[in-house]
Amino acid sequence: MFRKMSEFSTHDQSIKPTDLRGILKYVPMFREQIFVIAVDGSLVAHEMFRNVLLDIAVLRSLNIKIVLVHGIGQQLRELGEFRGINISDAYGEGVTDEATLQLATEATASVNLQIVQGLTRNKLRCAATNAVRSKEIGILKGQDQKLSGSVDKLDIKLIHQLLDSDTIPVVAPIAFNRDGNSLRINSDLLASELASNLEASKLIFLTTHDGLKIDNQLIPNLPVAELESLLDDTRADSIPERLRSKSQHAIRAIRAGTPRAHILDGRIFGVLLTEIFDKVGIGTMVYSNDYESIRPAIPADAYTIFNITRNAARQEALLKRSQQSIEAQIPNFLVYEIDGSIIGCIHLRRFESENVVEIGNVYVLPFYQNKGVGRKMIEYVCQEARKQGARRVVALSTQAARFFSSVCDFDEGSYEDLPPERAAEARANGRNSKVYYLDLL
After folding, report:
1. What CATH number corresponds to the domain at position 425?
2. More confident residue, 308 or 78
3. Do the beta carbons of residue 183 and residue 136 sit within 8 Å?
4. What is the Cα–Cα distance from 340 to 343, expressed in whole angstroms?
5. Residues 273 and 343 reside in one and the same domain
6. How many CA atoms lie within 13 A of 270 on its CB side?
7. 90 and 224 inside one domain
8. What's the domain count of the chain?
9. Which of 61, 98, 363, 410 has the fewest CB atoms within 10 Å of its CB?
10. Measured distance CA(110)–CA(78) in Å, rounded
């Protein structure tokens, strides 16, 4: 039921990749957003790669910004066989010895040239960059990984300059360390790091596999938490190794803030356009659960809630509450937690006789403000209130008019829109709060 439901209306009909009118209908949704597209070396070598480049040309014509990352696994293996050299690892995940790095450098140059040539033939501006600085992985589980690297630093400013000048950055799986020496990096890892650091709206892995399959059944949609569980399941062994890599790095990107990751078979004609602009889709989409960081508060959270909200209470942005009162009301608080730390909270009060829920003490730590955390908490409360049969959600505020009216789409009301008991309290406390409400039914 979730296939593209969060991105497209359930009433829309299936859109063919060639239906320009259908595509243009969704252009405002993605215009000026960044897609990081990771292309396997096996797909670059496939005859259908030219059609992938056409899809990319269409995306660029719609003002979608593209960062292209490529792999070299197949080319490296074939080059090793041709030269009679045993490569130590084809994908930059294990040990990379000197001979393998030399072949990887040669393979990278060839693949990079092929991609730049193909983009040029499609009238697209592109540039190979040194925007990635690498560092040695070092020793893992007692084994020196030699010339295999990970991402040390990304020159995000340079990448944005290229994107803003209508240029596609082409990023290779060979990068230089601080001393200017080459290291081999896994392209799935590289794409994941780029997606999260560029705040991309999509990370797209183009492969020569169908997508994720379990018991030979394609999984079209998968919440990130379920994918994590799947990789810990005994059935994970049925997933090809290269798709396990993409799954792991999709999880990594989503946990770092990328909303969607897609695993697609690039050999299918129009695969990019179909996946992005057709609500049915064609591969596997992994998505974040926007509300999984929200949980009910527990007694141990009382001090943290008091501590993070007291400055706002001093400024009269929030109703002042003592730690004791928060402890007494803790069952009525929700908190927003990231990596074990509470960064936001919200208080709920239910007026059962009126079927109304009041939102109060909405607060997000300054570093996380303007990043959608407060809005997600409000959306979650409204969603749960609707499930429980509430007819209206209300909020009283002295300093958050824009947040409730513009960000959360509440209507401004008056004390008459409140339950009588709450209206009497508001008139008596002297705060002169404005009233905002959202009808759920």
Report:
1. 3.40.630.30
2. 78
3. yes
4. 9
5. no
6. 12
7. yes
8. 2
9. 98
10. 13
